[in-house]
Amino acid sequence: MVSLLFSYSHKDEEMRDRLETQLTTLMRQGVIQTWHDRRIGAGEDFANAIDMHVESANITSRGWPS
């Protein structure tokens, strides 16, 4: 399975949501999994969670031009 990390400005969250919606079929088929910082749980070490996903991601999407 391919792991995709979204790295983006929160002002672009709507764009990230739209892209993730477009990937839904691939996610359901088990081809790709996505992750972004909004999935960090309460009390979880923020920096550690990000570092772990940055290191393990196969693809990193780094925002969008305005």
Content-based structural category: alpha/beta
- Rg calc: 12 Å
- Give the strand order of the largest sheet, numbering strands 1, 2, ... along the chain: 2-1-3
How many structural units, i.e. domains? Answer: 1
Given the C-alpha coordinates, what overall shape results?
globular
Give the strand tally: 3
Poorly predicted regions: none
Report the biggest beta sheet as strand number plus sense, adding barrel if it closes: 3 strands, parallel
Strand content: 15-25%
- Kindly, what is the distance between the CA atoms of the first and last residues, rounded to a whole number of angstroms? 30 Å
Q: Name the helicity range.
A: 25-40%
Average pLDDT level? 94
What's the helix count? 3
- Write down the secondary-structure element order: EHHEHE
Structural features, described:
There is one protein chain. By secondary structure, the chain is of the alpha/beta class. The chain has one domain (2-62). Helix content is 39%, strand content 21%. The protein is built from three helices and three strands, in the order βααβαβ. It has helices spanning 13-22, 24-28, 46-56, and strands at residues 2-7, 32-35, 59-62. It has a three-stranded parallel sheet. The longest helix is centred in the C-terminal third of the chain and has 11 residues, at 46-56. The mean pLDDT is 94.
